[in-house]
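Project channel, design review

CF: Before we commit to the Calyptomena viridis constructs, I'd like one complete example in the thread so the newer folks can see what an input/output pair looks like. Taking BDH protein.
RD: sounds good, go ahead.
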Amino acid sequence: LLSHFSSIGFWGLVNNAGISTFGETGWLSMETYEKFADVNLLGSIRTTLAFLPLLRKYKGRIVFMSSIIAYFTLGNGIYSMTKAAIEKFCDALRLEMKKFGVQVCIIQPGNYARSTKIQPPVSAEEIWSELSEEEKAVYNKEYVQERANFFNSILSEGSTNGNEVVDAMVDALTSPAPKARYMVAKLKEKALVFVCALFPTFVMDSVLSYALSK
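CF: and here is what came back for BDH protein:
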């Protein structure tokens, strides 16, 4: 890598790859958890480690795509898990890279499902057919349908202004003084993050439980 880029320099790396799915904890297989960790978390780490010598040499930038879902979850805990993990990786990396003049930025989009198509609408029938017999004995089709409808309603509310996220990525790469975190989200979404960060856990649990009950 170093010999290939040495004549032109290397300024920025954007770790954007990610996959999403829906499902309560016991509905998903261990293979699914491993796949999500491999793509959303380890994929970004692999790329970062591969380009780190160049980024240090040219005092470049590293940008990671996280999400406000790193703070809370409403049916996609597996995605939330990977985003929370990448945030901690970034926090460590940001501090370590300061001495080399390398800046690390995190983009935290809100709901842009209609812009990215990262998460297609979920099918209650498909979810039910893939459940283990143990899970089918605990849940019923009506519950799965309710949760699927709830999640699909969230997806339908997603913003179509994906350019807002791209603008944040560009600023992170080009600004003389980039932010450590760019939260690109609606006021309601920012309020949820605020409650999650500053209030006792039971308060956030109450808010999310109320939302799920609706």
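RD: helpful, thanks. The domain at 12-213 is CATH 3.40.50.720 (Rossmann fold).
CF: The first strand starts at residue 12 and ends at 15.
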